[in-house]
Structure formats: C-alpha cells, structure tokens
Amino acid sequence: MMLDLRKHGLFVCVLYMLLPLLCFCATFVPSDNYLIDCGSTTTTSVGNRNFTSDNFNKKLLSTQQEILASTSSKSVSSDADESPLYQTARIFTGSSKYTFPINQQGRHWIRFYFFPFIYDRYNLNAAKFSVATQTFVLLSGFTAPKNPVMKEYSINVTTDTLVITFNPFDNSVAFVNAIEVVSMPDDLIVNEASSLSPASTYSGLVNQALETVWRVNMGGPVVSSGQDPLHRTWVSDQKFLLQSSLANDFSNVAAVEYVSGGATQNTAPSSVYGTVAQMNTSGDPNVNFNVTWQFDMEAGFQYFVRAHFCDIVSKVLNELYFNVYIDSLAAAKDLDLSSQSNNVLAVPYYKDLVTPLADSNKLRVSIGPSTLNKDNPNAILNGLEIMKMNNSIGSLSADAASGAGGISSGSSSSKEKEEVGKTKAVKDMDSSICQRSNIAYNGNQDENVSSASAVQFEASAVDDLSGVSMSRVFSQLVKSEGR
Ligand SMILES: *[C@@H]1O[C@H](CO)[C@@H](O)[C@H](O)[C@H]1NC(C)=O
Ligand SMILES: *[C@@H]1O[C@H](CO)[C@@H](O)[C@H](O)[C@H]1NC(C)=O
Ligand SMILES: *[C@@H]1O[C@H](CO)[C@@H](O)[C@H](O)[C@H]1NC(C)=O
Ligand SMILES: *[C@@H]1O[C@H](CO)[C@@H](O)[C@H](O)[C@H]1NC(C)=O
Ligand SMILES: *[C@@H]1O[C@H](CO)[C@@H](O)[C@H](O)[C@H]1NC(C)=O
Ligand SMILES: *[C@@H]1O[C@H](CO)[C@@H](O)[C@H](O)[C@H]1NC(C)=O
C-alpha cells in the first residue's frame, strides 16, 4: 500500500496517529505524572512543573506520625531548578508507604530528592533507612550525603499501583524531600542490548530496575532538567576525563538532524547530540591514542551503558571511523556513523551495552581511531548514560540481604500494547512517503492520546525521498504548534 502511494505524483498521506507519537518529541505527555513536594504545605513550582504537597492528597501516604519538616537553611546546590524542593521533608519514624495508582503500566521514572537537615529533635544527617517498591530494593542502609542529592530510577511498573516503602533502620528515622513518579516513553529502553562479554545479545532489560549513576553531556555544558523533554539532568564531562588535553570540545547544536526511526529528542535533546568531545589531534595525521573518561561506580553489579553519537565534526560522509571501549572490552569497532544513518551526517545514534559483573569501582569509557581512517584519525562521543542494573535478588543496593516484599505479576495491559502498536505502526510506515511541499496540518490541538485525530500531509514529488525531509516536516509542525 505504501509502495502504491509512491507511484502517484501527488498524494495525501493521512496518519491516524497523534503528533506527539510521531514527532521527535518535545511533546511526550506522561500518563502518570506524580510530582510530590513532601512535607510541604503549599504547591512548589519547579520550572514549568508544579510539585503538590503530600499533605493535600492524604490517600497517597500512609505513615504513623505526621511530621512535616522544614528548614530555612538554603540547600547548597543553588544551580539546580529543583532547589525549592529541598526546603521541606517528610520524616518517618516507622515503616511508611506512598501508594501511587498507575494509569498506564510500563517504564516509569522514580526520582527521590534528599537533603538532610536538623528539624526539631530529628537530625536527618544521621537518618539511615531503606526504600523499596513491591519488587525492588532501591536503597538500603542509605544515609543522605550532606549536599542535596537526587536519585533517579527507572522501573517497568506491571501492577496497578506502585507502592514505595520507606523503612527506618533500628533507632533511626527515614525521610524524603520530594518524589516523582512519571511515565517514560515505552520505546526509550527496549528489551535488548549488546552484551560486552561474552559479545552477544543481552535480552531481558524490560525486567530490570535501573538506577542512573551518571548521565553526561560530552564536550558541552550541563543540560538541566528544564531543558530536557523528560526532565533528565546531564552533567558536563570535564571532570571525568583522565587526560583532558587529549580531548577537544566542539559544538554545533543547529546541525543535529533527527530522522524518523532513529534516536529522538526523547533519547537525548540536541543540546546533548550537538556537542561532542573528539580527539585533540592538533592536525597531526600520525596520532594514535584513546580519549578516556573514568567513572566511579559500585562493584558487584552489571551496568547498562548507553553511548550517544552524532557526527557533527565531519565535512563529508564516511570519513570518520572509530573504536569505542568499555574498560578493555570493545564496545564498537570501526564504527561508521554515516552508514548507521542512511548516509546523512549529524544524525543522532546511540548504542546500548550491558557490562559484565563489575569487579572494580571504576568504569572507563574510551574512544580511539580505527585503522580504517589513516589520513584523518579521529573519534567522538556526544553523551553517555550509565545505569546500574538490579542484582539477582532484585536489589540495587549491595547492603540488602534479600529482595523486596511483593512479587510483580501480570503482563502489560491491552492499552499499553495498543500504544506500542501505534508507535510501531509509525515506524513501519515508510518514512520516505511524505515530502516537503504543501503541508497541510489538520490535526487538532489537544494532546489526548486516545483520540485519533487525523494528521494530514499533502505532498508532491516522489523521487529523492528521504527520512530527513520527513523529520524537518515534523519538527516544523511541532514548532508551528508553538510547543
Ligand atoms: C502551576 O501552578 C501555577 C500557579 O498555581 C499555575 O499558574 C500554572 O498553570 C501551573 N502549571 C502547570 C504546568 O500546571
Ligand atoms: C514491561 O514488562 C512487561 C511484562 O514483562 C512487558 O510486556 C512490557 O513490554 C514491559 N514494558 C516496557 C516498556 O519495558
Ligand atoms: C591539544 O594538544 C596540543 C598539543 O598536544 C596542546 O598544546 C593543546 O593544549 C591541546 N588542547 C587542549 C584543549 O587541551
Ligand atoms: C585504547 O584502549 C583499548 C582498550 O583498553 C586498547 O586495547 C587500545 O590499545 C588503546 N589504543 C591506544 C591507541 O592506546
Ligand atoms: C533483576 O530483577 C528481576 C526481577 O526480580 C530479575 O528478573 C532479574 O534477573 C534481575 N537482574 C539480574 C541481573 O539479576
Ligand atoms: C480523550 O478522548 C476520549 C475519547 O475520545 C474522551 O472520552 C476523553 O474525555 C478525552 N480526554 C480529554 C482530556 O480530552
């Protein structure tokens, strides 16, 4: 059917999908979006998001004693948009639960904000506690660091409610300053990745709880949660470089070219793909070295690593070939980004990797030139995400003696399957069908995912069809929507 359409000089392609599903995708609307400012008595605005008090929704929290704590001491990390969230906290003297009804099963971010202060007779600096869902231990024997910290997890919720339990250790209390439980796009983390050792396919990510350990923007500045469509924070890479003189930063954010079927802005925004660390060759064609970043992490776990690439440095196609290593293991050999992206430069690309069980507290990521480009040795990296995977007893903490209480059961709801099907249908649709001219957009403005508003594209020209033009069309539509 798609191929038939190609034969017509002028055609209309009608997409019975919603714009947010199609586009690249500042418009992802999470079906579950709990933003809770714990212990607060008012709603707190963070960028364009409102965190409501857990005092307003009594059904959410079950705890023995109502202790709403607050401090006037300003949290130290003033650069964060989130700093207002650290001014109040809930204190728990016994086991306490937040119960979140889940609209749509699937992966969710769970974010906890912690900033210990002294309130009344409670010194939160000494608080030691565990935090668990029905299925996973997220923290155990946890004591918050002196400075504010946000802990981010990603869990595929397969139950109708997500119960988060805080358990104080012995004579201690537990506390939390703020909580987020927010749906993620289903296709952001898929079931499979490349296993590094032995080199094979890792299958089973859908059942993994992940804890974000590092999320780094190579060659560029901090990308704050307000600048990321999924409210992730990306830190700058400088402090992780083993030898910073070997790396050279470059940026061209405007060059980033998202194409249909590839990485989207939800994978990482252009502020990440548009900055890069490359080899500092100083123009010498005979150089041969690796640029290496080193990250602290915890031994005894496997890690899910997502490496982001976007060739904004090459002038022509097929000029850049390079190798990527994690510790001493080959993560990618002779990587040619041009061929990964249908011969278009500056297309975002990412590679998902799973490390073997770590026996060291350091993880090194290196890039170096391939022997295939002798004249112009170079290698690049644009971004990196390192996530801890739960161990065999369902814990992200080595302290936990046993897994969490309940067992998750049941498969994904039919509603979820429908959404996954929709997204797939979009991908399957040959992106080359629609062309640039005469675009008419008749979609309605609301973002109701279940209402199938028809988006119409009228297009002429059938030859020279490329996914790139499609992506331009869509990003233009998004822009013209004023989002
Ligand atoms: C947040 O709250 C403010 C003040 O009540 C309101 O004006 C604004 O529309 C809210 N924003 C969102 C995204 O709900
Ligand atoms: C969540 O888990 C269920 C059951 O294993 C699976 O069918 C579904 O695809 C998973 N969803 C995501 C987004 O991983
Ligand atoms: C790149 O290398 C040259 C020569 O090795 C050195 O002088 C220069 O400082 C390096 N650049 C950076 C940004 O470190
Ligand atoms: C780069 O690192 C890898 C992995 O440790 C190593 O095998 C390779 O020899 C290194 N390349 C150079 C040029 O140092
Ligand atoms: C993580 O926990 C899930 C669910 O309990 C389990 O299926 C999986 O095997 C665990 N992961 C590892 C690496 O042991
Ligand atoms: C979304 O669409 C459904 C079905 O058309 C409708 O019942 C529901 O009220 C709509 N929700 C919103 C928020 O518009």
Fold blueprint:
Layout: H1 2-7, E1 10-15, H2 19-22, E2 33-37, E3 44-46, E4 49-53, E5 61-62, E6 68-70, E7 88-92, E8 96-101, E9 106-114, E10 118-119, E11 122-123, E12 129-132, E13 137-142, E14 149-157, E15 161-168, E16 174-176, E17 178-183, E18 192-195, E19 200-203, E20 210-217, E21 235-236, E22 247-251, H3 270-273, E23 275-279, E24 291-296, E25 303-309, E26 322-326, E27 329-335, H4 337-340, E28 349-354, E29 362-369, E30 380-381, E31 383-389, H5 414-428, E32 455-460, H6 467-480
Parallel strand pairs: 2-4, 18-28, 20-21
Antiparallel strand pairs: 1-32, 2-17, 3-4, 5-8, 6-7, 7-16, 8-15, 9-14, 9-17, 10-11, 12-13, 12-15, 14-20, 18-19, 20-31, 22-23, 23-30, 24-29, 25-28, 25-31, 26-27, 26-29
Bound molecules: 2-acetamido-2-deoxy-beta-D-glucopyranose (6 copies).
Pfam families: Malectin_like
Subcellular location: Membrane
Domain Malectin-like: 36-389
Commentary on this structure:
- Keywords: ATP-binding, Glycoprotein, Kinase, Membrane, Nucleotide-binding, Serine/threonine-protein kinase, Signal, Transferase, Transmembrane, Transmembrane helix.
- InterPro entries: ANXUR1/2-like, Malectin-like_Carb-bd_dom.
- Residues 36-389 form the Malectin-like domain.
- It comes from Trifolium subterraneum.
- It is found in: Membrane.
- The chain has helices at residues 2-7, 19-22, 270-273, 337-340, 414-428, 467-480; strands at 10-15, 33-37, 44-46, 49-53, 61-62, 68-70, 88-92, 96-101, 106-114, 118-119, 122-123, 129-132, 137-142, 149-157, 161-168, 174-176, 178-183, 192-195, 200-203, 210-217, 235-236, 247-251, 275-279, 291-296, 303-309, 322-326, 329-335, 349-354, 362-369, 380-381, 383-389, 455-460.
- β10 (118-119) and β11 (122-123) form a beta hairpin.
- It is built from six helices and 32 strands.
- The protein is mainly beta and 483 residues long.
- 10% of the residues lie in helices and 34% in strands.
- The longest helix is centred in the last third of the chain and has 15 residues, at 414-428.
- The protein folds into three domains: 2-27 and 415-480, no CATH class; 33-184, Sandwich (Jelly Rolls); 219-389, Jelly Rolls (Sandwich).
- The strands form seven sheets. Strands 2, 3, 4, 9, 14, 17, 18, 19, 20, 21, 25, 28 and 31 form a 13-stranded mixed sheet that branches. The chain has a five-stranded antiparallel sheet with strand order 5-8-15-12-13, with no helix packed on it.
- One 2-acetamido-2-deoxy-beta-D-glucopyranose binds next to loops.
- One 2-acetamido-2-deoxy-beta-D-glucopyranose (NAG) is lined by residues 106-107, 156, 158, 186, 206-207, 411-412.
